[in-house]
Amino acid sequence: MNDFRLEDDLEHLERSSSLGYLLGAFSHELNNHLTNLLLAADQAEADGNRSVVDLMVNQAQKAGAVIARLQRLGMGNLSRGGDVVDLVELCQQLKEWLRRSGGEDIGEVLIGEENVVTIASRHNLLRAFCNLARVGGGEGSPPLVVSVGVEQAPRSVWAPAGEQMSMAVVRFRRGTPVEQLNPSFKLLVDDFFAADRNADEVSLMAAWEVVRKLRGRLQLYGEEGGSELEIVVKLPLRESSS
Asked: Which of residues 182 and 225 earns the better pLDDT score?
């Protein structure tokens, strides 16, 4: 393990943890503008004053500017990246990072293939894996086992039946979950802001945003509300240069 590289990743992840506070500040600012806009709308309806309509337009423009800043921030923090990432090495580093950060230790890292490489932002992918490693954790939860390998997967949901491709696969497994897709993940992605979300749901959604930008796939297996689960991440393999 390269200690210098690990410390660099730790520092990056610590900086990233402040992102939530920053987004909260932007959201608070946006909410203030929208509240003023609604108040101005009420006043305009009451007295038909043109200056009040101008105030509404001004507040709407400020709100739009805040949204634009949020979009730029998101693009900067979730770039796809061009690092050559060895997923076996990354998962070994994940185990060390969780141990040193005082969180849950990974019980085991199973290696099915020695050469499992993808192209991504190494920092962002490590951040996504940290989020997934914590889903379902806590007192009394089954120990986490991470496995890395290469598997065949459908080329796409639109591809003809039987058309397969090789993909890098990382599995985060707790216990022995039932081998059926948990529909809660699709519901989470389809309407994330429809309800207040718990820590596991936020972690899943944050990880999905990273995986999605890499044209990857994320699947959740296990019974709804059960302590035994498996999260499967599938990522494109780096194309061979030969």
From this structure: 182
